[in-house]
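Weekly structure sync - notes
Attendees: PM, LS, DV (DV joined late)
Agenda: review two folding runs queued last week.

Item 1: First target. Sequence and structure tokens pasted below for the record.
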Amino acid sequence: MSRPHFDPAAYPAQLADKTARLRDLLAPFDAPEPEVFDSPREHYRLRAEFRLWRESGSEKRDYAMFEPGDKFTPVLIDNFPIASRRINELMPRLKAGWQASAALSFKLFQVEFLTTLAGDALITLAYHRPLDAAWQADAERLAAELDVSLVGRSRGQRIVIGRDYVEEELEVAGRRFRYRQPEGAFTQPNGAVCQKMLGWAYEVLGERSDDLLELYCGNGNFTLPLATRVRKVLATEISKTSVNAALANLADNGVENVTLVRLSAEELTEALNEVRPFRRLAGIDLKSYAFGSVFVDPPRAGMDPDTCELTRRFERILYISCNPETLAQNIAQLHDTHRVVRCALFDQFPYTHHMESGVLLERR
């Protein structure tokens, strides 16, 4: 993990620069002024990954990060102010735990923390050697001492102590939604901003009497609150881990108007265009849906041209993006039929150039 340059005093100017950048990218499309949702200045990041550094001739291991572009000069750290308070509380206790155990420290090379606003925590320890019974016994004692779930990973091995997910709670429009967030799967790193992002999407979609198509639904992060705004939802996701988490989240929250299928956005485009049938859509009558809106939250590459063309069919396109450049490219493809009526900046990644943004496009 690269080391960010943490400087709370510079944060307002950095956020202003990001706002200007988004404004400039969306200016060709006559977009309104971006709504800006800032981040806590510190302790905002709910997950963190550290390499461990061992000096030659020493058995002591330290948390290490690296400057961007330099993988050979470690910056040794004892705390990480952008990470959640729970991660900072766990860091020295975990370090003391592995230093006190030869079974835990031997060939340990990486540590990952996953925490939640609700206070849950999971730690993953990665090794360059097989994990044995001695490792498991010491790992179970440490997990109980730290009150965390713990996952041990090595080539061909994955040992879970406790659960392989954390539990989160996020509030949207006065309702609390519970989420399982699996180890190794994508989750939004900035919980406070994620909550603002969900609230914005909920508001701009509005109360609707028709149906919603959701592409790239992940673990159901947006699916849960948006499903309460429409008649029913058809949601797609390709990752099996995320699909399983989304199904559990729908059940845990009593959301019953969502049908989830494990298809990529490209495959669903082919299905809706009747290019070819898919066994995973057996029993789902696509023609029974009265889609009025589509929600997309694609990877950094944005939507491929065919999927982007598919979204043109809908009256409303609600688009969350982690890459404003590919967002602008997709809007350019849609600009002749849809106009930007709302846009927002969500500062998920303070002290970096990255930003999350959202737009609502409506048919002209």
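Item 2: Second target, run right after the first with the same settings.
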Amino acid sequence: MPYNWVTCSPPEVRGFVFNLLGGIKEIIKEDFIGFYLHGSLAMGGFNPKSSDIDILVVSNKSLTVKTKRDLAKLLLASSNNPFPLELSVLTIKQLRDWKHPCPFDFHYSEWWRACYEKDLAKGTSHYLNDEIKTDPDLAAHITILNHRGICIEGNPIMEVFPSVPRFDYLSSIMGDFQDCLEGIEEDPIYCTLNLLRVLWYINDDVISSKQEAGNWGIAALPLDVRYTIQKVLMCYESTTIKYDFEKKELLRIRDFIESRILELLR
């Protein structure tokens, strides 16, 4: 059964998050403005066996390369021990001068593990440097944070984060939508639920978790795709249930969602 931070988050999840918060504050020191939770743990769909913990950190000014290296060490030691992390650090100026795709100061996910380990081991700066990068996903992360996120410590969300224009949010989620159209056979659980999230938003302006979108799909969509959604949702919610998915059923739901979205966007 997925968990919610406020009502039923297991003690080990809370301990993990607060230990990470303490480590980040120790590194960023007086430039720390806030530590914010978004994603499945904030919205009540967190599965300890499969979900990331999604965090945004805001600092008063850009981090030095040394600070980035210290953060990388902390996150390499923390992520997947036991929960994987996806974390971005943004400055208050980057948020106030809103642009899409949004610039950020530092980012960590497991995708970056090998790159950061290499820089730290060899003393290089190929990935841990002063370069300011942008991330189109931040428009979606910040929108979800504004609607469903949690301030763990620091200034309130509404004082720190901008209201992201609807067009920017739509642009952000449509990028992932295209990836899911192509990847549904390789990752049917994530891709099906994410496609449903996009459809629900475009259909009804609802910002939802993957679990909520799956339940909506079962209730609202035609019978010929509901059985597949039920299997997907049961796999997502359980640590033991596994189903095999036939190619034709995955393509059926993919094509149905894509055609419905194209109709709604016309």
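Discussion on item 2: The longest strand covers residues 32-38.
Action: LS to circulate a short write-up before next sync.
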